[in-house]
Amino acid sequence: MFDRYEAGEQAILVHVDFADASTNEDIHELQMLVSSAGVNACEIITTSRAAPHAKYFLGSGKAEEIAAAVQAHEANVVIFNHALSPSQERNLESLCKCRVLDRTGLILDIFAQRARTHEGKLQVELAQLRHISTRLIRGWTHLERQKGGIGLRGPGETQLETDRRLLRGRIKTILKRLEKVAKQREQGRRSRQRNEIPTVSLVGYTNAGKSTLFNTITNANVYAADQLFATLDPTLRKIDIKDVGPAILADTVGFIRHLPHDLVAAFKATLQETQEADLLIHVVDFADDQNIDNMKQVNDVLAEIDADEIPQLIVCNKIDRMDSVEPHIDTDDEGKPLRVWVSAQEGLGIDLLQTALTQCLMQSMMTQTLKVPPADGKLRAVFHEYDCITEQSYDEQGQWLVTVRLPSSDWYQLDKRLDGALSQYSTTPPKPQHENDW
């Protein structure tokens, strides 16, 4: 579609340090992104500037240095650790005589490699189309004219207008398909809400160990690797949490600093699992020196998708790479879990994580002792169906003394279903137990 140089595996990396530290990127992260994309970095060129240059993003002298490095290493792609404008990419390609990619283009390329499901491929294609729609003009500079010739004269579209129209049509088609996917996900969420099944969503910076933790908890076989954006397609699994019951655990795509807005918009259906979760497990690679900054970047993205108000449980992962750190739980003044220190790779602290999940998801519970006549076998069957019996015995008259414990919503719903039988057989008033009692 584009009249441009073909990308290859030999790359020159470019990193610029600006006076404003908030706009700077991490050069180590660029190297990891390039490695995840399967590209070999020949040389890294760094420089400092007060502000980007309008023509080349960096100075003309440094641009000439990049072009010389491309020729010396016979590289066929230059990758910037920053977002470039379409004109800057075009000017640099003309100077370097090779393909030029910015940070957004590199991330999109990695996403295109990782997409496995139909939904994931649609989301990546949507993000790519939105990205290249602003760069069409540089690919068709030789066709920015109206068609001519016999039968083609008169009012008509330029080639550029034709391409834009085709892009708009394809984007509209993808959005319709993704809308169907969103409706299907919404139906699944409504079903879980009706059954009062809580949803726990794994979030965190890319390569923090979310998929490894997901596999450890669920015994699943989700692809996990020590690379950025190893997970792209969301995966849901049912798990059982002690004293809470069934729950849904969702593994989601990792976040990264300055995540392209096109990606956030394209992955709206995927991120909906995070927005609708009852609890977020924020997985943090605490062996990484940038862990505090990475947490901030994740929270920024959560705020961008309106998920920053959802309760969080921080999981400090990869303690096996840290000195003298044992699995443990950090709690607040009320005993509520704040952080759990684990190693998903080695399976350390997973039992503590299960305990913390129980405490975080524990709803208001009802504990009650009932005296049930022998003739009421229906109530006995219902209690076994709800699996809520904690103690049971029989008195001298053969009446069943049973202690049950279940969510308050289930208690009142069941009492109504049994025409007040629970209240009739209760020996003591119901005692609600809140999560803070743990």
From TrEMBL:
Binding residue positions for Mg(2+): 211, 231
Q: Name one GO molecular function term.
A: GTPase activity
The record, for InterPro entries, names: EFG_III/V, G_HFLX_dom, GTP-bd, GTP-bd_M, GTPase_HflX, GTPase_HflX_N, GTPase_HflX_N_sf, P-loop_NTPase
Compartments where found: Cytoplasm
Cofactors needed by this protein, per the record, are: Mg(2+)
Q: Which GO cellular component term is one of those annotated?
A: cytoplasm
Q: Which UniProt keywords apply?
A: Cytoplasm, GTP-binding, Hydrolase, Magnesium, Metal-binding, Nucleotide-binding
- Taking every annotated instance into account, which residue ranges of this chain make up the domain Hflx-type G? 198-365
Q: Which Pfam family, any one, appears in the UniProt record?
A: GTP-bdg_M
Going by the entry's taxonomy, the superkingdom of the source organism is recorded as Bacteria
- Quick one: which residues bind GTP? 204-211, 229-233, 251-254, 317-320, 343-345
Note the PROSITE patterns from the entry.
G_HFLX
Q: Which family does the entry's similarity section mention?
A: Belongs to the TRAFAC class OBG-HflX-like GTPase superfamily. HflX GTPase family.
Note the HAMAP family from the entry. GTPase_HflX
Q: What does this protein do?
A: GTPase that associates with the 50S ribosomal subunit and may have a role during protein synthesis or ribosome biogenesis.
Its assembly, as annotated, is: Monomer. Associates with the 50S ribosomal subunit.
- Name the chain's protein: GTPase HflX
